[in-house]
Structures are given as structure tokens and as C-alpha cells.
User: Fold Flavodoxin from Leeuwenhoekiella polynyae.
Amino acid sequence: DNPLGKPIENKAQHILIVYLSRTNNTRAVAQMIQKKTGGEMTAIELQDPYPENYQEIVAQVAEENETGFLPPLQTKINNLDHYDTVFIGFPTWGMQLPPPIKSFLTTNNLSGKTVIPFNTNAGYGLGSTIKTINKLCSDSKVLEAFSVEGGIERDGILFVMEGEKAEQVEEKLDDWLTKIDF
Ligand SMILES: Cc1cc2nc3c(=O)[nH]c(=O)nc-3n(C[C@H](O)[C@H](O)[C@H](O)COP(=O)(O)O)c2cc1C
Assistant:
């Protein structure tokens, strides 16, 4: 009942979930977050997609990290002002924040918003990713990141977020979402 006709605040409407994913593990975590928060999900896509070949993408990313190249994105967020909470998902690449995420955070102003990182990796953790996010989001409130082991493309292990593994990740995700209290 809303007798004064005021708009009813709906938290879910103000949550954006952006993610980068090559072999769909980070995407699967994004979908779990979507299911639990009701936020709006958007994939980060490049104007010039990375090579399919693993050795080639590793070499290209290493070079981009070295030169500081920020790959232009296909993805544009039209109504960024509308969101006050932005979940940002990414795999660890070369123990760093993937260049497309650096592009995203450089071309989208998230100041004043709550930024919530989430990550998958091959078992080596977050590396310098959070340090870089804090640097690129200096006027945002950056909450504690969620990080889990995903695929190991180097060894031919691609998508793993199914069955029992997905259940474990979902449980861990529940604990984290409760803890960060966003
Ligand atoms: C170019 C590239 C570099 C990577 N570098 C690392 C790394 O430094 N440390 C790590 O733990 N995993 C690394 N990985 C593995 C991914 O982080 C892992 O497979 C992740 O789950 C992939 O997420 P996605 O399925 O959403 O693409 C790398 C993968 C790629 C493609």
C-alpha cells in the first residue's frame, strides 16, 4: 500500500553487475550474484576481441600490461547514474587486473558508488587486481572482494562452475554477501 503515491525504493534496481569472462567461469559467478541480488547484468565486450589461442592471448595481455594499453570497449553503460552499487567481475590475468577492466574503470566514473569486486582464477589468487581497483576507484567505496578458483586454461581446463563445484561456490558466495553487507 502506497497512499501518497511515492516511488517505492527498490534496491535491486540500483545494482549493476558488470563482468569480463572468456571461458564463462566469472560469468557463472555473475549469474549467481544476479540471482541473489536481482541486479542488472552486463558483459564487458571489446571492439577487437582477443585471440582464441591461449598462448596468443597471454602474450597480448602481457604486452598491454607492459605498455599500459587500454583496449577500447564495445560495451557502453547508458544509465550509469542510475546505479549506486556496481559489482565488477574479472578473471586474474597475468596476476593483474585484465586490461578491459582497466578500460572500463577508466572510462566510467564510479565515484560515490559502492564497488564490489569478484574474481575467478586458476589457483594463484587475486594478485595486484584489488590494488589497481582501489587506485582506479579512489572516490568509490570498494568492499571486500570475492575470489574463487575457476578454470586452468593453460592445462585445458575451461568451464568448471557446474555440479558440486557450483554448489560450493554458491555457499561461499552466500557467506560473503552476508558479510560485506552492501
Ligand atoms: C590471459 C590469461 C592469463 C591468466 N593468468 C592467470 C594468472 O596470472 N593467475 C591465475 O591464477 N590464473 C590465470 N588465468 C586463468 C584464469 O584466471 C581462470 O581460468 C579464470 O577462472 C578464467 O575466468 P573466465 O572463465 O571467466 O574467463 C589466466 C587466464 C588467461 C586467459
Q: What stands out?
A: The pocket of flavin mononucleotide is lined by residues 21-27, 57-58, 61, 91-95, 120-124, 150-153 (CB under 6 Å).
